[in-house]
Amino acid sequence: MKVVIIGAVAGGTSAGAKIRRNDENSEIKIYDMDYDISYSGCGLPYYIGEEIEDRDELTPRNAEFFKKKYNIDVLRRHEVLKIDAENKVLTIKNLETEDIFYENYDKLIIATGAKPIVPDIKGSEKSNVFYLRNVRQADDIKAYILKNKPKNAVIVGTGFIGLEMAENLKKLGIHVTLIEKLNQVTPGLDSDMSVYVEKYLRSKDIDIILGDSVYKLNGDSLVNEVALESGKVLNADFIIMSIGVKPNTELAREAFIELGTNGSIKVDTKMMTNIKDIYACGDCVESFSLITKKPLYRPLGSTANKMGRIAGDSITGGNLEFRGILGTGIFKIFDMAVAQTGLTEKEARNQGFNVAVCHNIKPDKPKYYHGKEMVIKAIADKNTGKLLGVQIVGYTGVDKRIDVFVTAITFGAKAEDLFHLDLAYAPPFSTTKDPVMYTGMILDNEINKGRELITPKILNEFVKKGKDVIIIDGRVSRQYEEAHIEGAINIPQAEFRNKARKFDKNKIFVTYCNKGVTGNALQNILINNGFKKVYNLSGGHKNYKAQIIKIDK
User: Fold this and answer.
1) Which ranges carry the Rhodanese domain (predicted)?
2) Nearest to residue 389, comparing CAs of 329, 454, 434, 472?
3) Which of 71, 118, 377, 481 has the most CB atoms at less than 10 Å from its CB?
């Protein structure tokens, strides 16, 4: 059997390696347009920022490696121009010699990946406008910085790569301005979690412009000004466009391979396309959500590796099948870690779920053992109790918690199940009741025990609509005097039981403290004394204070 793979990096090389592990006799060839065939795309910002000093650490496997270890022929700088699916023939161009030749196959795997979205902006063709998708592009950015010693950089887009580049350029002494078309950074998060990232970025002297976009890039031979739609003009020594990627599927489309709703290649669970003997994997392929079972495009190296392995297994008669993804992601910005998995609140509501939401602010380990607070936002389905998604912003221990949540969602856990997890505990690693467990307890209280939560946004809407809401601040007087929600009555918990009897039980009450625990205690007192409608403010005053600027906007 002769297998040809179009594209290397994560998906293509994983597929080739799996084919060889299953079948010693197949002929395997990989054609790739690039110079580097297997590299860590996620490590590129850290190479530019000199966190990774040796370029070879990003490209540990070359063509010789694959030939020696797997007996796979990897041909770099070769572009497949056409797929003749009926005759199983490829038209290929050697990009170094310009020669065109033909290659037949028995089985074909398309792993053409994704490419940066290039906006139609005047001036974007100039040489100091960069994209970051491969090692050569990283080389170009690094070389430009070394040669020109730039002082100001503008990054367009605030996704993973944009923010990672902001950190690394800042560490090189370059002033960074981020431009984001939306009214929040980190488009993949809900806005009430992105505020924490935005505040942290500003504390690191990163300029942020939200709700605006690039109109024109000014300059003669090089860009020296960025003109925005709002009329603002920014000085810039170079620009990095980081507004996302799209699947590289022109070759597949021209071969009449079926594409999904977002232009990525549609495959079944065995990674087979609609055309017999043609498979696809990696960033060019449409995935689907484990939760909704609907199509989902989230190009990540981890998913590409998984898809490649399954494609290689399928071709050689294996039984592996793709099970879908949650869209899990994590990145670092300076000392902050940002992670997410599953559905955001916005996505869950759009999908028609009856949503329960909580904001849990807890340290990753005891304060006496240098614990640092993390904010966990969790979304669950009130009808089934099942966990739907989680977002975490913190400093240490974020990766550990997100992976627990990923595992729980993957296996259909309910919010109430989280409390019963037998998680590892010792002071250097966790609190006695881990933040994961606390998150389950909070959601369980809302879903199953009538302890409803209210988000700062909804509380603000209540007040604006003139609802007769009595807001109780259960903190000590000193905390109340420093800052409180407008109109709140300060009744510390120690005095609350006696004073609560005087309230009208038919009115709406919202209780809160600093982070939520005492607010829940006041809520319990009211409910246990026959009060009809009592909410606890999700994340307490700490979360409210973080949200209020965005809410007022």
Assistant:
1) 465-553
2) 329
3) 377
Residue 38: pLDDT above 80? no
The string of DSSP letters for 76-127 reads -SEEEEEEETTTTEEEEEETTT--EEEEE-SEEEE---EEE-----BTTTST
Q: How far is CA 88 from the centre of its chain?
A: 38
Taking every pair of C-alpha atoms in the chain, what is the biggest distance, in angstroms?
A: 89
Domain 335-448 grouped into CATH 3.30.565.10: no
- The DSSP code sequence of 414-478 is BGGGGGG------TTT--SS-HHHHHHHHHHHHHHS--EEE-HHHHHHHHHTT--EEEEE-S-HH
Say whether 387 sits in a helix, a strand or coil. strand
Domain 129-243 identical in fold to domain 452-552: no
Q: List own/partner pairs for 498-501 with CB under 8 A and 24 or more apart.
A: 500/525, 500/526, 500/529, 501/529
Task: Sketch the domain layout of the chain as residue ranges.
Answer: 2-115+246-315, 129-243, 335-448, 452-552
The CATH H-level (homologous superfamily) assignment of domain 452-552 is Rhodanese-like domain (3.40.250.10)
Q: Catalogue the active-site residues.
A: 42
103 within 8 A of 6, measured Cβ to Cβ: no
> Which string of b and e fits 97-124 if b means at least 16 CB within 10 Å?
eeeeeebebebbbbbbbbbbeeeebebb
**Angstrom distances, CA of residue 77 to CA of 35, 44, 63, 98:** 6, 21, 12, 10
Neighbours of 445 (CB within 10 A): 21
Predicted confidence (pLDDT) per residue in 463-493, tens digit: 888 888 999 999 999 999 999 999 999 999 9
pLDDT one-digit tens code per residue, 515-550: 999 999 999 999 999 999 999 999 999 999 999 866
Polymer length in residues for the chain: 553
Residue 193 has pLDDT above 60, yes or no: yes
- State how far the Cα of 390 lies from the Cα of 189, in Å rounded to an integer: 10
Quote the tokens at residue 237.
């020594």
